[in-house]
Specification:
alpha/beta, 6-stranded mixed β-sheet, 5-stranded parallel β-sheet, 11 strands, globular
Length: 374
């Protein structure tokens, strides 16, 4: 089998890795290339970090290898990756068998990075660290694009020009890594926060994850949508397969529990995930909201004002007519989940995020499955 080509866009915070990476991915799809996409930051949300892996770079690489393998099975011929790399060691290629990596660095002038960080955070706190990281990354070779003064589209075009030819499959360059022995099922708890589009799944799930960390657990987090950016329609089979692989990596790193966010569909879909997570104790929490709340939240996301920014959000920038159609579909989805949805229910209507998180934790506590919440 030939190595699958991966274009890894890296750079310091504020340089535009995710935005440019997503633009490159969508351009490749429009050109008929069977590309897939992964955000490396989404593949290492597990704390505290393992001893011997500062920054969780090896963990992220192991998860990337598993996700790319899933994408390959789904028909992808190349993958665009965005995210940080270890400034001192670069990409841990030894964790990426069967993958031919081309690293393309994004950079920007110091003044530009300061402006972008201020726009993102409200201040330029941490700028000195970001500038040191940028200087370290400048020492890494390979194609480089300076995004200063460029739009996302212009930066993506320059990436495609500088990294021309990266999509060509290559002969295998490294021996495959020996398969790791599978762990015995041990019943570690997994919480799945689900619900209709716009109900706040990712926002609530991530806050629950933070609450578990604050309670002293070694916890991990996964967003199902981030595990299924493939050339064709993403299905639950692929996402469940990738989720199971990522959860194995997190368990090996010592994670005691996993919180995940994503749509559930129906009981049959839930059963597919439960089968892939065999040996884990899966609890489903179903968030609910009425027509008014769902419509308001979807309209806000369309304007880029949602509480959970994510690469590839399908609602940002869409016309009002499209958003209203999505809102109508979300209402029907909520009604269907009310009739046959799995798990325990939390109504988000009229409640703050803090209140919803408290109710989710209360429901999770009732299961008796999570240490420190009993």
């Amino acid at each position: 089998m030939r190595d699958i080509p991966v274009l890894w866009l890296t750079g310091p915070p504020g340089v535009g890795k995710s935005a440019v990476g997503w633009e490159v991915y969508t351009r490749l799809l429009a050109a008929g290339v069977r590309a897939a996409y992964a955000d490396i930051d989404q593949l290492g949300i597990c704390h505290p970090e393992p001893a011997g892996d500062p920054g969780r770079h090896r963990m992220q690489a192991r998860n990337l290898a598993a996700v790319v393998d899933g994408y390959r099975e789904a028909g992808a011929t190349c993958v665009v990756v965005s995210g940080v790399v270890d400034v001192r060691r670069g990409v841990p290629l030894e964790e990426l068998p069967g993958i031919a990596v081309t690293v393309c660095r994004l950079r920007a002038a110091d003044e530009e990075l300061s402006r972008r960080l201020t726009g993102r955070q409200g201040s330029a706190d941490g700028l000195a660290h970001v500038l040191r990281e940028a200087a370290g990354l400048d020492a890494i070779g390979g194609p480089c694009v300076d995004t200063t003064g460029l739009t996302v589209a212009q930066a993506a075009q320059q990436v495609l020009e500088r990294a021309e030819g990266w999509t060509t499959p290559r002969d295998a360059s490294r021996s495959p890594v020996a398969a790791r022995p599978e762990e015995e099922p041990d019943g570690r708890p997994v919480l799945w926060v689900c619900g209709p589009t716009g109900v706040g799944k990712s926002t609530v799930a991530f806050r629950v994850y933070l609450a578990l960390l604050a309670a002293g657990l070694r916890a991990a987090y996964a967003d199902l949508d981030q595990l299924g950016f493939t050339p064709g329609p993403a299905d639950h089979r692929l996402k469940a397969r990738n989720l199971a692989a990522v959860w194995r990596t997190y368990r090996r790193a010592g994670a005691e529990t996993l919180v995940m966010a994503g749509p559930v569909g129906d009981r049959a879909t839930a059963a597919r995930y439960e089968a892939e997570l065999s040996g884990s104790a899966l609890t489903v929490c179903r968030l609910h909201a009425g027509r008014r709340d769902l419509t308001e939240r979807i309209m806000l996301r369309g304007r880029g004002l949602g509480s959970w920014p994510q690469p590839g959000d399908p609602l940002i920038g869409r016309p009002v007519s499209h958003l209203r159609r999505i809102a109508g579909e979300a209402v029907l989805e909520a009604q269907a989940l009310e009739r046959a949805g799995p798990g325990f229910r939390v109504d988000t209507g009229g409640r703050s995020v803090d209140e919803v998180v408290a109710l989710v934790l209360q429901g999770l506590r009732r299961t008796g499955r999570v240490p420190f919440l009993r």
